Structure formats: C-alpha cells, structure tokens
Amino acid sequence: MTLKSMSELFYHPSLAMQHLRDEQLKGTTEVLFKLALLALIPAASLFVGTTQIGWSLILGGDVVKLSLISAINSAFAFYLATCLALGVMSFAIHWMEKTYGGHASLERCMNLTLYTAAPLLLSGFAGLYPMLWFCVAVGMLALAYSTYLLFTGVPIIMKIPEERGFMFCISILTVGLIILVGLRAATVFLWSTMTPLAYIG
Prior knowledge:
The chain is an all-alpha fold. Helix content is 74%, strand content 2%.
C-alpha cells in the first residue's frame, strides 16, 4: 500500500480498488508487514493519549491517566487483537469467496481487508485525544467509510456481479460483527480478571 494508493481511497475509491485488483503482490509476507504496520496506529495512539493526555468521558470532566505498565499491557493486547481480527477477516473472505463466484488469492483477500479497514485504522489517531465522545464520533465516521469501501471494492476485486457482491459484503459484515463482539467480550474479561486497568491522577 503506497501513499498514492492510500490517498486514492479517499478521493477515488473505485480507481483505488482497480489498482488493488491489478497490483502485483510478492507474497503473504508483504501484506502482513503492511497490516502489522497500520495496526500500530490505534495501539500507539491510545498508549500516548492515555498516559500523556488522560482519559475523559465528557468535555471538561475529570481526567484520568493509565499507569505506564497498565498502558503498555493494554496497548500490546489491543495491537495483537487488531492483527488477529484483520487476519481472521482475511481468511474468512478467502473461505467464503468461492460461494459467491470469486477467485482471488489469499494475498488479494488480505489486501482487500487491509484497504477497507484503512479508515478505521487511521481513525486510531483519535486516541491521541482520548475523549469518549470524540473517539466514538471519529470511529463511527471511519466505520461508515470502511463499509462503503467494502461495498465498492468487493465486486471489483472479486470480479463478480454487484448483486453477488452485495450479498458477499453482508456476509463479511456479519463475520466482522461476530469478531467485534468476541473481542469486546475478551477485553472485558481480561480487564476484570487478568490485567485490570490501573489509573493514576
């Protein structure tokens, strides 16, 4: 994913998806490196925001910060969870594509996952200012645009009719929702048992 292809996602998404379809991939390692790099954005941003700026539920409300150790553990767990979620989504897309007439390689499915998730991962910069309403607002906008990219990209990359592409996207979103619920449950369990958050200030 070059800077040009990244910017195309926001001003010409259809063209970006065509370039993604025609891009010559060198293998899974190349895509995994891009995935691991982008997944650092939300984890690192939240680490900085929760330790240097502080967390607040409302504007002007009490500000709390995480202890350094707690923030490191949380950021590392969040990073691993993000990578795992993107990996599972890629394999799910590759597994389901034959049902809808697609013939993309695993690397191509991973690239599709990475491109469509890019707005969500980039929205992780909002973690530098970790106020709840702000992060939720930015996250919802990013989710809406990622969904748009998914519906735009699937028919192009999978080379299938838009009708099949629509149903395929619904299946992908269903899998994504299941993954999200699972990660949320795992997060609550870890924070309440094994790695409770430690606040300061």
